[in-house]
Predict the structure.
Amino acid sequence: MRNPLAAVLAAVLAASTLGLSTGAASAGPIDESCALVDALATGGSPAGLVQLARMARRWNDDDAARLGPMMGPVLGRFDYRGGSVYEIAALGNALVEHLLVMNMQTGGSVYIRLLYEGNGTAPATFVNIDFQSKYYDIMKKPLMKAPAAIACE
């Protein structure tokens, strides 16, 4: 006789896996930026790299293959405890940029700028990441607008 609890757990796991893969395909910039903050805060660099790979799903194979080796050592230097997302550029669905302020376990913060671009109709998609451990370094590029806090769920 089949274990009913195992069957229920298998169904829940299948549904949640399906939900993740379906949700990632339709996620917009806010969802992706918030998911990256959550991934880094709960699973560190390995989880952050998985989320970045999801975000880069539309990249060509060569660029996507370089993302992990490039960002892994950088992200792996820090132990994250949480973070915040701010919108620093917005041109409808043509361009969105977010500043992620990642808080570290030992105090202080590091900074990530995520750039999303689109054709103006569909949600913008992830095209670039810039990571800096120092505030003044991340702010060398101008901001289009004053940072506006985004509430992640």
